[in-house]
Design brief:
The complex is a heterodimer of chains A (770) and B (213). With 770 residues, chain A is mainly α. Chain A has 4 domains: 189 residues, no CATH class; 99 residues, no CATH class; 136 residues, Serine Threonine Protein Phosphatase 5, Tetratricopeptide repeat, CATH 1.25.40; 217 residues, no CATH class. Helices cover 77% and strands 1% of the residues of chain A. A two-stranded parallel sheet of chain A has the order 1-2. In chain A, helix 11 links the parallel strand 1 and strand 2. The N and C termini of chain A lie far apart (140 Å). The N terminus and C terminus of chain A are likely disordered. By secondary structure, chain B is of the alpha+beta class. Chain B is built from 4 helices and 8 strands. In chain B, the strands form 2 sheets. In chain B, strands 4-1-7-8 form a 4-stranded mixed β-sheet, with no helix packed on it. A 4-stranded antiparallel β-sheet of chain B has the order 3-2-5-6, with no helix packed on it. The longest helix of chain B is centred in the N-terminal third of the chain and has 50 residues. The radius of gyration of chain B is 29 Å and the shape is flat. The chains are: A mainly alpha (770), B alpha+beta (213). Chains A and B meet through helix 3, helix 4, helix 5, helix 7 and helix 9 of A and helix 1, helix 2, helix 3 and helix 4 of B.
Chain lengths: 770, 213
Amino acid sequence: MGSMINSLTLVGSLTLARSLTLARSLTSVSSLPLLSKNLKSALPRFVVASCLIVSCSVNAALAINEQTNTAQIEKSAIAEESAVAATPEQQASFRNKLYRQALYYYFEGDYNAALRQVAFNRQRFEADTAKSHLFEAGLQVSIGLHHQATETLATFEQVLIEQQAKDKLAGLSPQSTDSTNDNNNESTNDNHNESNNAKSNTSAAELKLIALLQLSEQQIEQGKVTAAQRTLGKIDKLPASYAEQYLILNQLAHWPAINTPSANIIGEASSKFAVNLDDETEATGYSSLSAYVMLNQALQMIEVGDFKEAELLLTRVKNIRLAHTETSFWQDLFTEKSLQSVNRDEDSANDKVLQQQAIKDYAQLLLAQMYVKQAQYQAAFDQLKDFPQHSPYIESALFLFAFSAQQVNQYSTSTALLDLLTRQYPHSQLGWQSALLLSAQIKQQNTLAESLTSYQQAEQLYLEQLADLARFQKDIKQLKFATIFDKQNPLTTQNDSQSLWLQKALQNPELKNDVDTLTELTLLKQNLLEQQQKNAWIKETIELNKQRQARIIQQQKQTPYAELIQQLTLQQQQLSITISEAELQQNARVFANEAEQDWLNRVNQSHQIIAAVNGQRNTEDYQQRLARVEAVLDWKLQQQFPQRLWQHKKLLKEVEQQLIIATKQQKRFALLANTQQQTNPFEQRQVQAEVALTKVTENIAQLTTATEQKIQQKITVFVTQQQSQLQQLLLTSRHEMAAVLEQMSQMDSVPMASSAPKAASSLVNTKEGL
Amino acid sequence: MNQVEHGFTNPQLMFKSVFFKPFISKLLSAITLCTMLINPSYANDDVDANLGANVDANVKNLSANSAVASELEDIKSQVIKLNRDLFILEEDLLFPASTQVAVFVSVDVGRFFTLDSVELKINSDNVAGFLYTERQRRALEKGGIQKVYMGNLKTGQHQLTAIFTGADAEGRPVQRAVNHEFEKSDETVMLELKLEDNASSYRADVKVEEWVL
């Protein structure tokens, strides 16, 4: 008896231990087999195991399906969910972060990626802010999409107004919205000074002003001058920091008018461009932009014949101290980037100095030209005496200087200069003209024999250039344009004769434009090739996913879903009945495990035996013992009743959950099997991309062919023009030679005759002949 | 081509101003007029006669160039659109929101830490590493945010470890690391590693911000 009680206690404690394990493992789906092991009334094991297999494999299949089906939904869902979850500040912060991602690409120099990111932010996260529009417009300008930039800028104002209204409704201060908050992100200053660290907010009004200025610039660029005038007319006042930009645009929009309507400039800038300057203004220094404004003013004055005022202004530009120009983030953004500048980190300080010097040199040259125009040769000569040797305008300045020197009878200077021009610029028209001018001067000053030699040298120069030009034309026809105009090609950078001709030809802006177009087309072709490879890879990935999906669907077809659901339903019903019975009757025996059920069976059997032998023998003792055992068993079961009831309820929940999952999966699997027959959205998008790629490739090929033909024609025209000029010069030189020979023969026949007066008239003839 | 135009197209001159192109176009037309008067080669009657014809030819050329420019712009914009569509398609295909996790890097000021490289680990697995160029570092210091990693994770708890290597204000090599526990739900998880200057301790600290979509 004692051993029996011990064993019962042992069974009880084991059951308890298992129940605890069970309770812990209930949280995991993998506990279902354990549940079935522990609970007497658990479901048949195979049902649960099948459920698990089904669950895993269908989940895998659905993951792919979800990728397909939810891709479109995600876009709106993310935005919708975020709209619900995030506060307006958080939304603004998130939009700002998205914007800064695009900014990273911009600062890195990858403008295409920046533009893609802006479009991605808009499409995926609905991050459609006013600032992103302005940024987009700037990026479009950076990569040469001027028409699109104009459209983007035109819509910017509307978006700005809408956003301001939205922010007002949301109760946001202007500083807290991403539309108007330019933090230190946009500082162009690399030094980490205080001003860089401080937040510099660009107000909505300032953003609008920037947009109007940039819009007008784009319109001027596209030749829409009236539209530019209208755009600029919308600006009634502006801060001094934008004055120079505004004034230049205003000048260009109203060119050549001098007195144009102008906005009210807040600050000291307006007085800066007055013709009469004071020393105080001069001492502070000018930006390069101010110099451009003044140069434009001077040109306008020259056009209307106001030489005195133009002279004052040009002298001022020549002498002013040009300070380092700090450009804002937005000004930098809207600058069209050349291929070279994209690859370079920053504009070097040397370039800025060069640029400032070039402005002054140009003013000096213009001043000299103005003097020549007024026949003030001495003034022009004095002006060009100290012209910098390494200026980009040195060739023009040299020629003008030589011409002025000749006019003021500085013959030794002019001879040296013309000789230098001829030797240094053998491919230049100025060099060719210099050869004839030099010969004419020699004819005037020296003997006829020396003059003849000089003309012969000029003739030789022209003949050599003609031969060289013919070689150039022949070579250029044999080469492919893509290789000729490759930036890496030494032909465009070397100083040999061929590349010099090519460089000269490229001085024609139209030809240069065509060559740039061809270069861009080549780059676009390369980019398209990469995209085609990517598209092919995406196609392959979609195909692999489809195969995987098909395999899973095949596997799933073998799973008896209906049977599984039926069994699960049956088990659910059984469990429900058991639990409700147990709760109603508070009958703990319902939850007895196998061992306990054995014991209960034995007790029942014992009762039957006692009943059978009752009356024949004294069974009172047996009945008492049996009652004690039964009571102990009942007590044990009753002790565990709440726990077991909870476990069963939990199991019922699990079964119900599995039933729901199985039912859902059955439905989704049916859906998946159906959609498998159709083309999925990814595939559609991939096919669309493929079609578009083919179309764009064809367009590029067509445009490339057309551009190549245009370049070929323009080079032919260039060569013809050069040949014609050389032929004309050759003819002139030969005429002059003939004249000299004639004079020589006359002198031979009349030894005492003087040749000087004839030589003087010869110089005049030469000039006219040119 | 006259001498002044030649001067302007000299490759040595690198105009960086935004106003370069419009300024030059107007300037050149004015200069051409001035030059005609002083250059002996233009001082003959042919110039006036040819001027009208040249203007007509220029107008034709301008319109032809404009058409080509417009066509080129159209192609460019199509290529950019294609690029964007393929980028989105790729991301949708490879990184669905339910499993997507993205890690970003940003730098605030950068006086006390000059970023050199970053290494990322998720659940002790090396997932990404990035070595910065001068330009990329500056892009971050100017306020750009870089997406340094994008991958897929199961739902549940994960750990992100980031190790930043660089130099301090004195140029000494220095490392900063951060550990961050996060939970991947059905939504995209976006984590920003912010390298921030701490003015009180004169050093940079790494903070992690989970973006709220």
